[in-house]
Amino acid sequence: MKLISWNVNGIRSIHRKGELVPFLEQVKPEIACFQETKAEEHQSEIDLPHYEEYWNSSKGRKGYAGTAIFTKTKPLSLIFGFPEEILKKYELKDGYGDPNEEGRLITAEFEDFYLANTYTPNAKPDLSRLTLRHKRWDPTFLAFLKLLEKKKPVVFCGDLNVAHTPDDLANPKANEGEHGFTKEEREGIDRIIEAGFVDTFRIFTKGNGHYTWWTHFSNARARNVGWRIDYFFLSRALLPHVRSAQIHREVYGSDHCPISLDLEI
To answer: Are strands 77-80 and 154-159 parallel, antiparallel or unpaired?
Structure first.
């Protein structure tokens, strides 16, 4: 089973560029997870008859954030955002609003695992949303993963808006303490790993030079001056089923490139 994850930075825009459908037709994923869709389902012109589409779009700000799952296998159940039993324990709102209303999480249950597709809030260049990210979103998300894992193993993917280690960005020293590479954001990934979840790309590939996002400035993508901020993680119980985890740097259309995970399930 092949899964892909891609921050498309506007699903209508990437479709108009002619980049989305050809990639899906070439790779033929069983399940495709998209982040930063910036659209509602009825606004999409994509016609993929082999896929069921499930969208979680921003409820307040239109054309902002949003996630979607396209799948050839109909899910057993769906969860849009965080469930009430989690929200009762954690306060998510900050001065920017409620991230649970921004379409940042959609979870599908399949026979062998849960699949959570997430678009983690950005701490922002002035770090004005770092407290939300570190003290609220990250603990809430991890609690949600643990809740799911009580029932069956979990795969989660998406744009986590953080480079976890110095190997995950081209210029770690210059970016130390900047948004996307603060101690607090990186701790969020540490906690996920401590809880037993595995960064699938690092099973197969070590070292630097492997990135999923590049700024539009200074010809960064051509020079591969980027950041690895898009991930597939999974429960340790699924490790025997992992066959490959890849970054598709050659695929354009967004400031992020897609990533993929192959499971033998």
So the answer is: unpaired
Residue-level pLDDT at 45: 87
Q: What is the CATH number of the domain that holds 214?
A: 3.60.10.10
Q: Within 10 A of 131 (CB to CB), how many other CB atoms are there?
A: 14
What is the residue-averaged pLDDT of the chain?
A: 97
Distance CA 253, CA 23 (A): 10
Question: How far, in Å, CA of 74 to CA of 145, rounded?
Answer: 21
Give the total number of structural domains in the chain: 1
Segments forming the whole domain that contains residue 17:
2-263
Nearest residue to 224 (alpha-carbon basis) of 239, 213, 232: 213
Question: What are the residue numbers of the active site?
Answer: 119, 159
- Please state, in angstroms and rounded to a whole number, the distance separating the CA atoms of residues 104 and 106: 7
pLDDT tens readout for residues 96-141? 999 999 999 999 999 999 999 999 999 999 999 999 999 999 999 9
Where do the DSSP E strands lie in 120-210? 154-159, 197-199
In tens, the pLDDT along 135-166 reads 999 999 999 999 999 999 999 999 999 999 99
56: tokens are: 């979680």
φ and ψ of 235, to 5 deg: -65, 145
- How far is C-alpha 172 from the geometric centre of its chain's CA atoms? 22
DSSP-derived secondary structure letter, 141: H
Token pair for 215: 């700024």
